[in-house]
Amino acid sequence: MQMLNRYFAPFALILILSAIYFSEPEPAAYKLSLGILIASIVVNWWVAKNTYRYIHWAKQMKVLQVWLDYIWAVPLFWLLQPFWGPMWLLFVMAPATAALTMGRWHTLGVAFVSAGTMLGIYWYRGVFDGGPAAGMACVHATFIIVFSLFIYGLAQTALRMRDASLS
After folding, report:
1. Which residue of 56, 69, 94, 157 lies most exposed, with the fewest beta carbons within 10 A?
2. What secondary structure does DSSP assign to 33-58, as a single string?
3. How far is it, in rounded angstroms, from Cα 83 to Cα 140?
4. What is the pTM of this model?
5. Which of 166, 151, 156 shows the shortest CA–CA distance to 95?
6. Cα 79–Cα 73–Cα 67 angle in degrees, nearest 5
7. Residue 114 contacts residue 91 (beta carbons within 8 Å)
């Protein structure tokens, strides 16, 4: 969990702040995006800080963090994607978190939900009406799924190596 907070959270922060600063979204989208960003930082910090404090709730708190990462990504993507193309990378956060804290099928499920939501928003916005943007959207969705399985595989390999060195 610390790895996610150390690497992915700052990346998401840079991604969102860059989208707000460089793309100059509408004032309403700007304010709402900042509000969601602040709420996500506070909630993720609290969950990460208290996961092991409430050890009997640790598993549920990890699942909660996975779905909160997904929930934050949806409105931020909706608000900022028209102004900042790389916003699709927010949909990598929840599957990456799932890959480190859940099983293979849960990871795959979260990845499909994230990729499907992203594609649904792209479809609603007319990306699939023609042109290369539809192909890029499908590649983005594929990356979300493949990357989450890659992270899961790395985590499992690390656990096997740890277990082998203990015996």
Report:
1. 56
2. HHHHHHHHHHHHHHHHHHTTTTGGGH
3. 17
4. 0.87
5. 151
6. 150
7. yes
